[in-house]
């Protein structure tokens, strides 16, 4: 399973399951040093910036994100 497939599957979970998944993932990061975590976030930020620059991903207006978040409660 690719990372994109995993992300897609995770986003299809109900909010409680997503919250539990986030908890488990964050717990798994506790074994990393602060430098390792920082390096991973930098890698992720660079990857997202490259995807944005290439047009692979597009932004979502803040109002739309907030409306979606409020309706999920």
Question: What key phrases describe this protein's structure?
Answer:
73 residues; mainly alpha; 75% helix; globular
Low-confidence stretches: none
Residue fraction in strands: under 5%
Largest sheet: none
The number of helical segments is: 4
Task: Provide the helix percentage.
Answer: over 70%
The total domain count is: 2
- Classify the oligomer: single chain
- Average per-residue pLDDT, rounded, comes to 91
Question: Mind sketching the topology for me?
Answer:
Layout: H1 3-11, H2 15-29, H3 34-54, H4 62-71
Concise description?
With 73 residues, this protein is an all-alpha fold.
Structure explained in plain terms:
- The chain is mainly alpha-helical and 73 residues long.
- It has 2 domains: 31 residues, no CATH class; 42 residues, no CATH class.
- Helices cover 75% and strands 0% of the residues.
- The radius of gyration is 15 Å and the shape is globular.
- The model has no long low-confidence stretch (mean pLDDT 91).
């Amino acid at each position: 399973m690719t990372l994109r497939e995993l992300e897609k599957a995770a986003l299809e979970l109900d909010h409680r399951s997503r919250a539990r998944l986030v908890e488990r993932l964050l717990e798994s990061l506790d074994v990393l040093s602060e430098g390792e975590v920082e390096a991973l976030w930098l890698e992720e930020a660079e990857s997202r910036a490259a995807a944005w620059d290439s047009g692979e991903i597009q932004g979502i207006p803040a109002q739309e994100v907030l409306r979606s978040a409020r309706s999920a409660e």
